[in-house]
Design a protein that fits this description.
This protein is an alpha/beta fold. Helix content is 36%, strand content 16%. A nine-stranded mixed β-sheet has the order 1-2-6-5-4-3-7-8-9, with helices on both faces. It folds into two domains: 212 residues, Rossmann fold (3-Layer(aba) Sandwich), CATH 3.40.50.450; 49 residues, Orthogonal Bundle (Arc Repressor Mutant, subunit A).
Amino acid sequence: MTLGHRLIKKTSAEYPVGLGDLEDPPSLFVEGKVGEMPGVAVVGTRRCTRYGIDLAEAFGVAIARSGWTTVSGLARGIDAAAHRGCLRDGGHAVAVLGSGIDVCYPEENRPILDEILAEGGAVVSEYPPGTPPDRWRFPARNRIIAAMSSAVVIVEAAKTGGALITARLAAEIGRPVFVVPGDVDRPASEGCNLLIRDGANPVLGAADLIEELSLILGPPAREMVRESEADLPPGGVALDDLSAHWSVTMSEALVRVGKLQLEGRVRRQGEMIVPT
């Protein structure tokens, strides 16, 4: 990572508008381009399941393909997966650090950080260069994630932890919170299920997320699914068989279904996806 960072104050034209909703909007150290596209935060536990990782990547892909920015914290687990999905589709990503702008934590995610910058995204922090990733800094970091986003998505979260802090902070400043439900006896889903019990919006996959976000952010800005990608037989294809039918990953197939649903070109009929 190069040290081409700069300090953006609240009076700067580049300062993210959403941060003005905080009681204590901080100045930001920034490297890269924050951009003006609507941001969608995707966050969750570091101790996630394979299911959670796959879903976070699918959300990142879907958000990127819709022309929105994926915002997350570059942490292990769900955060890193969301960034990877966004980058896989050439999307715009913003990573909010709980350390100095020149300190990548965890170090294993440095390739993701470097790719975010290479793809035109941004890395931001309220902490000066050289600041270590002390644990107490991360809850404060989470308020920036929430404020820079137009909506917050919680993929997997334990009963305690940063993801629930982000959800609470988002709700306090009026950001809609979407949550993936999970097994009631799975620790990684316990926090998610509690959030839904307390009024958060359940989201059931990438297609469902894009449909819900479109009501908030408006129609996706990027090009929709091409005719050649929409090829389905008249009787449709079973949801579990879409990956093989289109020769793509299941995550990509779910994103494609979401786009086609938004265009009104397919509908779900039981476990089948059928053309309309």
